[in-house]
Amino acid sequence: MKRPWLIIFGGLALAVCAYLCIYFGKTSAQRSVERNTRPELAWLQMEFQLTDAQLARVMELHNAYAPKCEEMCRTIDAKNAEIQRLLAATNIITPEIKQALAQAAEIRAECETAMLDHFYKVAQTMPPEQGKRYLDWVQQQTLKPSKMMPGDSPSVAPMNKP
Amino acid sequence: MKTPIPENDRQLSGLLHEWKPQSSLPPRFQERVWKAIDRAEASKPQSVFAGAVRWIEAVFRRPAFATVYVAVLLFVGLGAGYLQAQDKTAQTESKMRSLYVQSIDPYQAPRN
């Protein structure tokens, strides 16, 4: 092959190699997180720089909390269905509706308490600075009024890097 | 079928075999011949494609241009890889954050 064509195609090959090296080099951590069986916890480890021992403790807490969370989901769904049914049956505020709304607020308070308790436990397993950052972020994501509607499509804000 | 060689041709052939050229080639004969060939080829009408190929080859023979070309491609490759990687990283992080929040918040957990 003539030298000019060698330069043309060699330059293109070099550009492709440079692209692939940078892309795969910079995304290796993310790809490893995605391949993990518990990607959300692998991400937590990467984001908050947890050691394997700290991650193991967080996993333990997470696994213990998961059934409670599922139970809360079921309770919230059942209460919401009841409220919807009561609202559909009338166009005035009946004592039953008042009572159901009060119960929904009670459930919300219980959920918030359980979540906070879990967040504090998780934060305590982290290095203090990371724990504080975790609490700031997770509370902002879960305890804001706009985040308290069931079935909301989550739009999770990026967190402040230390 | 072979025709017999006439007597005249046989004599001419003999003379040619005996002939030894005495004069030497003029100076820079070969170079002049190649130049003449180049001129003849250049004066021939060329297709657009052939013209473009000749132009590209001529341009890429210049070391300065070739160096800039390779440097620009390298920069473009690195830049595109970096930007794509940043995009992919942001997407993955956003997805993972959502997954984590959904796994701990019953109000944001996906409903079946």
What does it look like?
The complex is a heterodimer of chains A (162) and B (112). Chain A has 162 residues and is an all-alpha fold. In chain A, 77% of the residues lie in helices and 0% in strands. Chain A contains six helices and no strands. In chain A, α2 runs antiparallel to α3 (39-47), α3 (39-47) crosses α4 (52-89) and α5 packs antiparallel against α6. Chain A is elongated, with a radius of gyration of 24 Å. The model of chain A has no long low-confidence stretch (mean pLDDT 89). The model of chain B has no long low-confidence stretch (mean pLDDT 88). With 112 residues, chain B is an all-alpha fold. Chain B is rod-shaped. In chain B, 73% of the residues lie in helices and 0% in strands. At the A-B interface, α1, α2, α3, α4 and α5 of A face α3 and α4 of B.
The secondary structure category of chain B is mainly alpha
Largest interface, Cβ cutoff 8 Å: A-B, 60 and 40 residues
Give the helix tally of chain B.
4
Question: What percent of the residues of chain B sit in helical stretches (DSSP H or I)?
Answer: over 70%
First-residue to last-residue Cα separation of chain B:
96 Å
Regions of chain A with pLDDT < 50 over 5+ consecutive residues?
A: none
Q: So what's the overall shape of chain B?
A: rod-shaped
Termini gap of chain A:
54 Å
Quantity of strands of chain A, as a count:
0
Stretches with pLDDT under 50, minimum 5 residues of chain B: none
Q: How many strand elements of chain B?
A: 0
Helix/strand order of chain B: HHHH
Short summary:
Chain A is mainly alpha-helical and 162 residues long. Helix content of chain A is 77%, strand content 0%. Chain B is built from four helices and no strands.
Task: Give a topology summary.
The complex is a heterodimer of chains A (162) and B (112).
Chain A: H1 3-26, H2 28-35, H3 39-47, H4 52-89, H5 95-125, H6 128-142
Helix pairs in contact in A: 2-3, 3-4, 4-5, 5-6
Chain B: H1 7-18, H2 29-43, H3 48-60, H4 63-104
